[in-house]
Amino acid sequence: MSPIEATATLFGLINVTLVVRRSMWNYPFALAMVSLYAWIFFREKLYSDALLQLFFFVVNLYGWWNWARARADTGEVRVENLDNVARLCWLAGVAVAALAWGGLMNRYTDAAFPWWDGSIAMASVAAQILQSRRNWESWLLWIAVDIAAVPLFAVKGLWLTAGLYIVFLALSVWGLIQWTKAKA
């Protein structure tokens, strides 16, 4: 456990709590957290997760803009729904992306757990995009990501991060409940 991991963990807790509450203040904490985790994961040879943090940085900038626009239109951050066809397409896309990314990481890097890490990364990409678009289905993916990530981080000895993802799991369940109540 390092001071950087402890700081990233604290920022993560604040970030997700604010996302559940649909607060725009989640974004500064998100940007700080993903910057720190990019360094941590690269050091641990979890390359998919390290690259994922760079993606999160960009998508969080988009989410900040999108949430601000939605709030300006209605006075609050609205929650949106996907139809069933869109849900199936997103699920199929995650599966294909996980297979492709895991294969690339397995073949071309010395990544630790390339398939496991790659699958978590691709599901996280989809969840973050859906969350930035204010889709409540993002929470279903975050729950799956959290369940898969806890043992991966424990195996790598990232105990604070594993603990953070246990808390993220609880927050994701809370987020699903809150956003289900708020959805359009």
UniProtKB/TrEMBL annotation:
For whether the record's keyword set contains Transmembrane helix, the answer is: yes
Membrane topology of the entry = Multi-pass membrane protein
A GO CC annotation recorded here is: plasma membrane
- Identify one Pfam family in the record: NMN_transporter
Q: Indicate where this protein is primarily found.
A: membrane
Q: Which InterPro entries match?
A: NMN_transpt_PnuC
> GO molecular function terms here?
nicotinamide riboside transmembrane transporter activity
| Keywords for the protein's UniProt record, in alphabetical order | Cell membrane, Membrane, Transmembrane, Transmembrane helix, Transport
Give the highest taxon in the source lineage: Bacteria
Membrane spanning stretches: 25-42, 49-65, 85-104, 162-180
Q: Where in the cell is it found?
A: Cell membrane
The function of this protein is: Required for nicotinamide riboside transport across the inner membrane.
Family to which the UniProt record says this protein belongs: Belongs to the nicotinamide ribonucleoside (NR) uptake permease (TC 4.B.1) family.
* Entry protein name: Nicotinamide riboside transporter PnuC
The record lists the organism as Sphingomonas naasensis
